[in-house]
């Protein structure tokens, strides 16, 4: 169902918040949705990226994750309010189209699609490099090809298989973090292993204080921390295929605080109490450093397996998301009609297939020319992911205003403190974007944004012209 149809039928079922029938099979149950939500918040940003953040901020990175975690929860509650109003697979693209205009919906759909294509390229390539940890003789391109084809095949079977795979991918990540926390607590309290003599919670402030790089150093890590949470909004894309979206999705969203508290803040507190923050370096997993300090020789291999799982999970989610986004755009006349058709199993295989083809091409490019141009594209993926959060918040503000005026039904899952909490989250994102411009490591992503905006504007104008031409009445030919 398009946003135009919704606008014409606010008094009908859609206005009442019923999920429209989009042709998908509702095969994702509570167990899968919960794990997809957990997995979306745990990725390589924690297992690898946290090392760079720790080296820049010291123990105060814990506070940075807590603050950003609060903002992420506000974003997810805003998304939850919209999902309970109208749970659709197009999610924030659909809401942007309805509440902010067709152009915003167009930009959001294509931008989020590009985000996952680029993310899929990087994650499959990363997964191939992780395989070389065990066997350097396996060419990187071979592993990348095998992973891509295998994940694509899984996405062609059924949405239940996708959900089951994500469940186990997330289970590996969750088990690894909980195991690290339990081992770390044992080292700190019982003093076993070679790290037992120095492990202490006092390490959180004994090497230069809690803010060893100053408040400014902590602030400059906020963009790194924000990137770690990209993809947490993926749970919204599953709305069209959840067995009971109005029951399952609120539960998944409400678990965000404890997930962040345990898997990010809890894990970092323990790691930084086992190993001094001065040990960590950019590009080195804090989990690997902690295992080495404890003296577990198998630790590096375990972490490598977990990071491999995280990369494959992200690539799998990308394949799932791209097909749904392309079909949503096509159904709304903002993409080729070719993508509207579903397979016998209710899957948007055409959109997924095209996206996977681009992922494979991207892997080839990365293998042949791993230069700066590719890194610039990867850098752009981060800002495009944040665009989805901005659209979610702005759409929720417009929806809440209309609902308060009685123009739309109230959501059964209101965001607490809105609209003020949504405004705060928007202001926080704006601050992070400013910091991205200050930091030379992330500034390049902002350079690419205007170019993509220009491409989107040209594409949208072309679609408008096409639609106008189709609606222009043809004068009947004169009889000779």
TrEMBL record:
It holds the Pfam family AA_permease. Its main location: membrane. It is found in: Cell membrane. Residues 7-23 have a biased composition (Basic and acidic residues). Keywords: Amino-acid transport, Cell membrane, Membrane, Transmembrane, Transmembrane helix, Transport. The keyword Chaperone does not apply. Signal peptide: none annotated. Gene3D superfamilies: Amino acid/polyamine transporter I. The chain crosses the membrane at residues 35-54, 60-79, 99-121, 141-162, 174-195, 215-239, 260-280, 300-320, 347-367, 373-397, 418-438, 444-463. Belongs to the amino acid-polyamine-organocation (APC) superfamily. Amino acid transporter (AAT) (TC 2.A.3.1) family. This is Amino acid permease.
């Amino acid at each position: 169902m398009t946003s135009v149809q919704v606008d014409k039928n606010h008094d009908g079922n859609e206005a009442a918040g019923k999920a429209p029938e989009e042709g998908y099979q509702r095969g994702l149950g509570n167990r899968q949705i919960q794990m997809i939500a957990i997995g979306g918040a745990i990725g390589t940003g924690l297992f690898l990226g946290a090392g760079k953040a720790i080296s820049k901020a010291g123990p105060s990175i814990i506070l940075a994750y807590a603050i950003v975690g609060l903002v992420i929860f506000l974003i997810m509650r805003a998304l939850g309010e919209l999902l309970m109003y109208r749970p659709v697979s197009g999610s924030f693209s659909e809401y942007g189209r309805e509440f902010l205009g067709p152009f915003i919906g167009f930009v959001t759909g294509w931008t989020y699609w590009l985000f996952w294509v680029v993310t899929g390229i990087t994650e499959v390539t990363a997964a191939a490099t992780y395989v070389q940890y065990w066997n350097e003789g396996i060419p990187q391109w071979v592993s990348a090809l095998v992973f891509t084809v295998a994940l694509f095949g899984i996405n062609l079977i059924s949405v239940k298989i996708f959900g089951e795979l994500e469940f186990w991918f997330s289970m590996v990540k969750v088990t690894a973090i909980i195991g690290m926390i339990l081992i770390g607590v044992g080292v700190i309290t019982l003093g076993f292993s070679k790290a037992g003599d120095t492990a202490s919670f006092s390490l959180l402030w004994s090497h230069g204080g809690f803010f060893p790089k100053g408040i400014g150093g902590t602030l400059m890590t906020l963009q790194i921390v924000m990137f770690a949470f990209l993809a947490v909004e993926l749970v919204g894309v599953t709305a069209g295929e959840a067995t009971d979206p109005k029951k399952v999705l609120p539960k998944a969203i409400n678990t965000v605080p404890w997930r962040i508290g345990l898997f990010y803040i809890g894990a970092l507190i323990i790691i930084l109490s086992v190993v001094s923050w001065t040990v960590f370096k950019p590009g080195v997993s804090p989990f690997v450093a902690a295992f080495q300090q404890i003296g577990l020789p198998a630790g590096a291999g375990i972490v490598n397996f977990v990071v491999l799982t995280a990369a494959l999970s992200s690539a799998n989610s990308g394949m799932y998301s791209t097909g749904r986004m392309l079909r949503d755009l096509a159904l709304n006349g903002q993409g080729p009609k070719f993508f509207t058709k579903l397979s016998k199993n209710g899957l948007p295989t055409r959109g997924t297939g095209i996206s996977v083809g681009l992922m494979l091409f991207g892997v080839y490019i990365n293998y042949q020319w791993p230069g700066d141009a590719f890194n610039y594209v990867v850098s752009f993926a981060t800002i495009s992911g944040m665009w989805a959060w901005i659209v979610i918040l702005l759409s929720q503000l417009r929806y809440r205003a209309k609902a308060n005026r009685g123009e739309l039904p109230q959501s059964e899952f209101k965001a607490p403190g809105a609209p003020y909490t949504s405004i705060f989250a928007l202001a926080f994102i704006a601050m992070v974007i400013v910091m991205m411009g200050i930091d030379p490591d992330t500034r390049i992503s902002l350079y690419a944004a205007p170019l993509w905006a220009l491409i989107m504007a040209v594409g949208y104008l072309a679609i408008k012209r096409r639609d106008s031409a189709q609606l222009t009445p043809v004068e009947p030919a004169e009889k000779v």
